[in-house]
Specification:
Helices cover 36% and strands 28% of the residues. It is α/β, with parallel strands linked by helices and 180 residues long. The chain has a seven-stranded mixed beta sheet with strand order 3-2-1-4-5-7-6, sandwiched between helices. The protein is globular, with a radius of gyration of 15 Å.
């Protein structure tokens, strides 16, 4: 417990990590009673933030060492962590979060497709990235042209003079446009 609080305090002092923490805190406000996939959960602190409101959180990251750390430090009764895609395949989710995942992925559009496929009808796909990754704008636009997903919300948070953090919330139906 003490180590968890120390890590969260370190995150709050770092501008980038604090911006990322903000993505999770904002998303958590909309997750009451929902089943959530944190795709690319890293060390698990974002999944833990989401778990405060969500019914169930599944944290996935391909890095087994990060998942081991997440299980040790950020475990909770309503969180499961997996380093295998098999753990992600169990059912559909009300929301899938891809926070700061796409800038580091080689197959960006493929990950978007995989993540979107895990969202149940009426659910949301939440994506965040730094504006210093401008290639994502075109990848996301191309993905949207090829899919049914609609942009419901776009937020931008100041990170530094050179960049901001963008969070996008997509819905699979025009009926959900404009909702958080």
């Amino acid at each position: 417990m003490k180590k968890r609080e120390e890590i969260l305090e370190t995150i709050r002092r770092d501008p980038f990590l604090c911006g990322m923490l903000s993505c999770y805190e904002r998303a958590a406000l909309c997750m009451k009673g929902k089943r959530v996939l944190d795709y690319g959960c890293g060390y698990g602190w974002g999944s833990w933030i989401l778990s405060a409101q969500a019914h169930k959180v599944v944290g996935y990251d391909p890095d087994k060492e990060r998942i081991d750390f997440a299980r040790e430090i950020f475990s909770a009764p309503n969180i499961s962590f997996f380093s295998s895609q098999l753990g992600v395949q169990e059912g559909l989710y009300d929301a899938v979060c891809l926070f700061m995942v796409l800038p580091y992925a080689e197959e960006k559009k493929e990950i978007l497709k995989k993540a979107a496929a895990r969202v149940k009808p009426g659910g949301s796909l939440r994506v965040s990235y730094k504006t210093a990754a401008p290639e994502l704008t075109e990848v996301l636009a191309e993905w949207r042209r090829e899919s049914q997903w609609r942009l419901g919300c776009r937020e931008e948070r100041y990170l530094s003079e050179a960049e901001n953090i963008v969070t996008l919330v997509y819905y699979d139906s025009p009926l959900h446009e404009g909702l958080l």
